[in-house]
Specification:
By secondary structure, this protein is an alpha+beta fold. Helices cover about 30% and strands about 25% of the residues. Strand 14 and strand 15 form a beta hairpin. Helix 5 crosses helix 7 and helix 5 packs across helix 14. The two termini are about 35 Å apart. Bound molecules: 4-amino-1,4-dioxobutan-2-aminium adenosine-5'-monophosphate and magnesium ion.
């Protein structure tokens, strides 16, 4: 084949030099046509849009042509031409075609017909090649870029916190243990317990559920930081919103109050959603058309409206009034209980019809580090609740007072020996500060309009599933 520098398809579709020689490489989405001429829809992942390759059958070897089936990978030289067909400005009149890789139509699982998302999860290694997952993962990339850009431009430092840890930040006991001890025959102490002093780190360790505690250490020095990394939770919740391995973004800001924390959360999410509208229009149009006709409207709405702020206590009052008026929830609501996703979504979707930030939760249902309110019952927590998602962000102002923090740690029986380094922030130069965690996949769920969190991370880890 003649050597012509490759043009990626997203660029090829923009070219205007009709008549020029062009090379593209990609995977065949479909092939159709008649006895004389065939049309190949070719995609290389650079955009959801395919380029049309026009093949004059008389000019090509029949045996080679037979290999060009859905899923095959081909290398095409040709002439850029104006397209007569609908939906594209340019196409390629093929002059030479090389088949890099065939995809036997008898065996290749992704044929033209639409597959269910459930089926595609079973072939997560190949689902990447569908339009849907191409769109989702281009958007996922864009959201990561939006996040780094947002914080970088506002003077935050990207801070890397460890994945292996000796402390349970959220105190919910949902940690995956990390050990090199033998499971069948672990070293034992004289008392018969597992002897973690013999383990790799000389102590008991787990995968982190959050980078927050180390993030706070950095905020007490660098002022404004954020983390962005994987977190792990062994919660046995098989829901469309939970993963055992998910990514979290956790900004932490010295001197911020809860009000400033709420402003940051709203501004940050709105920026990310606006970024998607600006940078991912083709992919969003596709998802809007295929899955959720209200997607783009919903995204615009969120960027244009302030989030409703109210206390947990007021939220519970609204929910109880709804129950009194005959609204049925699966789970009961009462002051002091944790809100279920159905309650959160009622507030957002039925009552306020916009995102909600709930604050001042009962201290019993929130983590030890949250700033205690004067009432002795609530803490300065804030959860951001979103349409279709429920909780998308959890955060708080932090307890900066050493004595109050220690009292809370003792109340909750958290082993103090694991916490000495964290407590040092409150012993030396303590400062008011606040932060929050955004679940990355929940953001992607919202932005793509997908219904199941397993469809917005390439290779989901959930109970009983760690394939690929
Ligand atoms: O509310 P969470 O547990 O808060 C924290 O971890 C704090 N340390 C954050 C902070 O203040 N720096 O989790 C934060 C967010 C949730 O709002 C949710 O979006 C997401 O992380 N999340 C999950 N996403 C997917 N699967 C799971 N199992 C998740 N658990 C939490
Ligand atoms: Mg939470």
């Amino acid at each position: 084949m003649k050597q012509i520098k490759r043009t990626v398809i997203v660029e090829a579709l923009k070219r205007t030099d009709i008549g020029a020689e062009i090379n593209v490489k990609g995977w065949v989405r479909t092939r159709r046509g008649n006895k004389n001429v065939n049309f190949i829809a070719l995609n290389d992942g650079s955009t959801i849009n395919n380029i049309q390759v026009v093949v004059d059958l008389a000019n090509f070897d029949e045996t080679m042509l037979r290999l060009i089936t859905t899923g095959a990978c081909i290398n095409v030289n040709g002439i850029l031409a104006e397209s007569m067909g609908q939906g594209q400005r340019v196409e390629i009149q093929a002059t030479e075609i090389e088949v890099f890789g065939t995809a036997d139509p008898e065996k290749y699982p992704l044929q033209k017909k639409g597959h269910t998302l459930e089926y595609l999860r079973e072939i997560a290694h190949l689902r990447l090649r569908t339009n849907t997952f191409g769109a989702v993962f281009r958007i996922r990339h864009n959201m990561a870029m939006a996040i780094h850009t947002y914080f970088h431009e506002r003077g935050f430092f990207y801070f890397h916190t460890p994945l292996i840890t000796g402390s349970d930040c959220e105190g919910a006991g949902q940690m995956f243990e990390v050990t090199t001890l033998s499971l069948s025959d672990p070293k034992k102490t004289k008392e018969g317990a597992v002897d973690y002093s013999q383990d790799f780190f000389g102590k008991r360790t787990s995968l982190t559920v959050s980078g927050q505690l180390e993030g706070e250490l950095a905020a007490m020095s660098l002022g404004k930081i954020y983390t962005f990394g994987p977190t792990f939770r062994a919660e046995n919740s098989n829901t469309p919103r939970h993963l055992a391995e998910f990514w979290m973004i956790e900004p932490e800001v010295a001197f911020n109050t809860i009000e400033e924390n709420m402003e940051l959360a709203q501004d940050f999410i709105q920026y990310c959603v606006r970024w998607a509208l600006e940078h991912c229009a083709d992919d969003l149009d596709f998802l809007n058309q295929m899955y959720d006709k209200e997607l783009v409207d919903r995204l615009k709405f969120v960027t244009e409206n302030d989030f409703q702020r109210l206390t947990y206590t007021d939220g519970v009052a609204i929910l109880k009034a709804a129950v009194a008026n005959g609204h049925k929830f699966d789970y009961p609501v009462d002051w002091g209980t944790d809100l279920q996703s159905e309650h959160e979504r009622y507030l957002v979707e039925e009552h306020f019809k916009k995102p909600v930030i709930l604050t001042d939760y009962p201290k019993e249902i929130k983590a030890f580090y949250m700033k205690q309110n004067e009432d002795g019952k609530t803490v300065r927590a804030m959860d951001v609740l979103f349409p279709k998602i429920g909780e998308i962000i959890g955060g708080s102002e932090r307890e900066a007072d050493y004595d109050k923090l220690v009292a809370r740690i003792e109340e909750l029986n958290i082993p103090m020996k694991d916490m000495w380094w964290y407590l040092d922030t409150r012993r030396f130069g303590t400062a008011p500060h606040a932060g929050f965690g955004l679940g990355f996949e929940r953001l992607i769920l919202f932005v793509t309009g997908m219904q199941n969190i397993r469809d917005v991370i390439p290779f989901p880890r959930t109970p009983n599933n760690a394939d690929f």
